[in-house]
Amino acid sequence: xxxxxEPETVTAPTTSADYEQLRRLAVELAETAAAHVRARRPxxxxxxxxxxxxxxxxxxxxxxxxxxxxxxxxxxxxxLAERRPGDAILGEEGGGDVGATAPGAVTWVxxxxxxxxxxxxxxxxxxxxxxxxxxxxxxxxxxVDVAAATTYSAALGAGSHAVRPDGTRxxxxxxxxxxxxxALVATGFAYGSARRARQAQLLTExxxxxxDIRRLGAAAMDLCHVASGRLEAYYEHGLNAWDWAxxxxxxxxxxxxxxxxxxxxxxAAGELTVVAAPGIAGDLTDxxxxxxAPTALPD
Length: 299
Prior knowledge:
Blueprint lengths: L15 H29 E2 L2 E2 L4 E3 L6 E3 H17 L4 E4 L14 E9 L1 H6 L5 E8 L2 E9 L4 E6 L4 E4 L5 E3 L12 E4 L5 H14 L5 E3 L4 H9 L5 E5 L3 H13 L3 E3 L12 E5 L1 H14 L8
Parallel strand pairs: 5-6, 12-13, 12-14
Antiparallel strand pairs: 1-2, 3-4, 6-7, 7-8, 8-9, 9-10, 10-11, 14-16, 15-16
Helix pairs in contact: 1-2, 5-6
């Protein structure tokens, strides 16, 4: 069940108690939307395929959006309008302008379903991600693994945790691995063919120098896997703020070294995101520098 129950007081957050209050709200928003997504999938995607009008595409034919993505974001926006009506919202489907937010004000950065392709195909790796950003920096966030019913969350300066379906609360810590050669690293690929081709070239230079690569299909989940020690690192070009706002804070609060673009930079710019356990972060950064990965890959 969501941890949050009382209406929020709309003030500029400045203390650890403020950040914790925002974390509780992020958990409520993400868990409520995740429950909706979980219930809606069997209704929208029957055995004989999706219902009419359930799936569309965005900038690329390979980039789907479903009716459930839209419903999930609308639900989060409705709850925020009730709880914190003065806050700005940046959502993957509904848009918004985080750069226009007043100093000290909160912007909620929302990915209503991260891993839509997995959701579309019935693969288990998809999540709802909700982050609270102040002055360009995440201060609270929650990511719910929908299929596993597990909630990851963090507040700035207070560490990060996972709550399992049975209610067990676990403190998250990054892997202690210090050898890049045995590091398990995740990445992702763009929808555009030109950027995707360059990402594949980079991978051929990175893969021989690590244990193995994983492509799980949901950036927010990848970041939570780094936080929990299931992965040593994650890198990808072209993330949007909603892909990383909550997950990057969760990973950082678990001890990860985090490099993300400014929250105002969109995914089309192709900037690099890198999140890594501290023991291998330096060597991974050196490797990425040698193969030219820090160069942006615009879409």
